[in-house]
Write a structure and sequence with these properties.
By secondary structure, the chain is mainly alpha-helical. The protein is built from 5 helices and no strands. This is Manganese catalase family protein.
Length: 141
């Protein structure tokens, strides 16, 4: 089962990188060609000043992404619990973003991503069960 779990985790990680690409593409398309004055009017003047319309990974408050956000202890059970929590946080964030937009295309993309986070949560749960069974057989605890 552990071999299957490794494959599952690889698949989820690959899909999460694709999610980043989808969000980056949405933002790029939504801001492409927007004049500086409009960026300033909607509260993105500081972003425009430093990045123009370039993609720059930051949260809703402009705090840049950092590898410090990755939670890893080296304990597979603790790390899978962290992954489960991260999927729920992502699902909630997508729901909040859906509430903030009136663009049907953006809503559709966000709904798709939200649904995938639910699936990932379920799959991480399966992985957790497999790892706990494996660890129990190895008498690690």
């Amino acid at each position: 089962m552990i071999k299957n779990t490794k494959g599952l985790l690889t698949d989820i990680g690959t899909e999460e990188l694709a999610h980043l690409e989808v969000i980056a593409t949405l933002i790029y398309k939504l801001t492409k060609g927007v004049p500086a004055e409009k960026m300033r009017e909607v509260g993105l003047g500081g972003f425009y000043t430093q990045h123009d319309n370039a993609l720059y990974y930051a949260d809703a408050n402009g705090v840049p992404w950092t590898a410090a956000y990755i939670q890893a202890t080296g304990d597979p059970i603790a790390d899978l619990h962290e992954d489960l929590a991260a999927e729920q946080k992502a699902r909630a964030t997508y729901e909040h973003l859906i509430n903030l937009t009136d663009d049907p295309g953006v809503k559709d993309a966000l709904r798709f991503l939200r649904e995938r986070e639910v699936v990932h949560f379920q799959r991480f749960g399966e992985a957790l069960n497999d790892v706990q069974d494996f660890m129990g057989r190895k008498k690690c605890y």
